[in-house]
Amino acid sequence: MALIVQKYGGTSVGTVERIKNVAQRVKRTREAGHEVVVVVSAMAGETNRLVKLAYEVDPDPISREYDALIASGEQVSTALVALALNKMGVPARSFLAHQIEMRTDATRSKARIESVGGPILRAAIERGEVPVVAGFQGVDAEGSITTLGRGGSDTTGVALAAALNADVCEIYTDVDGIYTTDPNIVRAARKIERVSYEEMLELASLGAKVLQTRSVEFGMKYGVRIHVRSSFDESEGSWVVPEDETMEQVVVRAVAYDKNDARISVLGVPDQPGVAAKVFAVLSEAEIVVDMIIQNSSQDGTKTDLTFTVPKADVLTARRLMEPVAAALGAATIKTDNQISKVSVVGVGMRSHSGVAAKMFGVLSQAGVNIQMIATSEIKISVVIDEAYTELAVRVLHQAFGLDT
Amino acid sequence: MALIVQKYGGTSVGTVERIKNVAQRVKRTREAGHEVVVVVSAMAGETNRLVKLAYEVDPDPISREYDALIASGEQVSTALVALALNKMGVPARSFLAHQIEMRTDATRSKARIESVGGPILRAAIERGEVPVVAGFQGVDAEGSITTLGRGGSDTTGVALAAALNADVCEIYTDVDGIYTTDPNIVRAARKIERVSYEEMLELASLGAKVLQTRSVEFGMKYGVRIHVRSSFDESEGSWVVPEDETMEQVVVRAVAYDKNDARISVLGVPDQPGVAAKVFAVLSEAEIVVDMIIQNSSQDGTKTDLTFTVPKADVLTARRLMEPVAAALGAATIKTDNQISKVSVVGVGMRSHSGVAAKMFGVLSQAGVNIQMIATSEIKISVVIDEAYTELAVRVLHQAFGLDT
Predict the structure, then answer these.
(1) Which of A140, A181, A215, A367 has its CA 20 to 30 A from that of A65?
(2) Against a cut of 0.80, is the pTM above it?
């Protein structure tokens, strides 16, 4: 007998019919002898509807009320799933964040979980009930409702699995696992059986939208085994698990891409200490996330160029904030480019295999893809390229690193 | 400076535009120097949408989850009103039932308020904020969400007004007050300026849907002055207040009707003690509300007929439950009639004026309306008649008791 946390995303509970399917699956899991805790997102489309309402009232809504508003969708879906389970003869009870003391910090709209009220859920499980927990939401120390950001229900699921010492956190979604790349681009993309937390973290933050990054961090920190699978069939999905030796045998696990960033270049800034700090302090204050940063060493030691990427949605704000800074620094000009994408290869095998970067650059060069920026970590290499070449680059890299077969 | 509780119904917050109007009105009230506590219902249509979802999942939904589900509509409307107020520069904060300790008993779907967390709201008011409180919902001792029944937000408003010792509870709705009868039936119907709690209780339970009965009971118990008015204009509405001498000058305050009941007759039951108790025990167990009851004294002292009314929605269940009881009692037959209505005249003036019943029966007789059942209280007389004559009866009574002028 195992304790299984099953998290169902918005599409999995998007209609009454699908909610009944979820209940059926929970029931089957119980009949197989397991204990189940269910975590659900809002019904597909519901959170967007609520967000739209908020922006109709105030284009810059205050965060306390915004969070209270958009957390209401999970109250609906948890109650409906609990109703469906009871209807099938499975005792179930819905829980909102405040009812299980899902405590977070007070950072609205991307709050971080601080503690989870395990005892309340354990008591429900011991009574023979299936707790159906609202994902995505928490409460801060004041008792106000917070939310965990888009995809936050994943994190709720993994956090509960950690608190309850569950055997696995199953993430049910509308795809059947994690792929070596986007199957819409590369037909030969294959489902990955096992991926390490480190790899998944890179993939999650690189635009593979299957899991919220923070849920993977949580999984890694507490050793929660995560199983990403489809809610529409019974097939085995992909496991996100601790790294082991066999994983290093594969050099590149997956190829990811991200078209959501834009590039900003500040040309002709003085090549002296403190310049970058000034530039990025301004962006940080505005909570604009900077991803890649490149500063060339200048040829004559006086002027240099500073290039970085930010989310496309923030590029106008960033530019507006940069202008006075650039002027004060005597920078020549600011250039922005929305037509870029980031393509990355990821794999823990890179730690023990050299030459991956060289191979990647060679493959891209042969395909006629110009590299604008490069960033690397121990287990990934990312390049920024012209957005128009994204699919081409993904395809040639997927093949070159042996992922097609 | 007064402390005013303003309760806005579903139509008053039915769209983003109307929510902004609500916020404007709250702002104006503040600018006039008053302190305001806002209570809101779910946006019009939302509760129905949620009810429909529940019944799609389970035609007989378990009450804990049903209540959790349908209470979610108020989370949306409170947050949106709080957003709109903040946007207009009025500090505001939404509160759900558990956040202000709005404690009820555990009777689902028609829970009774036991206590209200006044201190939390008082603290918010003292900080200069407008609390925006979710109507309709409460929490029981276990921390589960309860709801107060249709129209329950009225009761939330009056209960808060009582707990905060507010000067008035304003009930904003889509009509501009309480009328001497339904203006759709009698064009000459007039808005009532002042009505006593007792009269309003009779009117509320007699099918005038303006205020939830329990809110009036609460108002009477705690002496809360209730002002029913339109959210679409500034006109003075109707006041529900303690009875005073001037009120007795009017014999009949209003004529009400109710088409929601059906009649059940059990014919030929033994005329002996304990029979009625047996019959109604069965209905009471099934939580079917019996309104009027008539038992004729039998002519020969052996058999009699028992007639009573129940909600139309319950008539089939009631009949099914009665059949074995009637058989056991040796009753001849059970008859039901859905085509009835109840027409009532109400007024505290009846206490000091005799002949109201005689006049009422005379007027109906002259109009050719046959009376099937009669029930009276100190301040009202109700008759059950053929449903087809409802409008006629209301019209002639409204005129005969001088309400047209």
Answers:
(1) A215
(2) yes
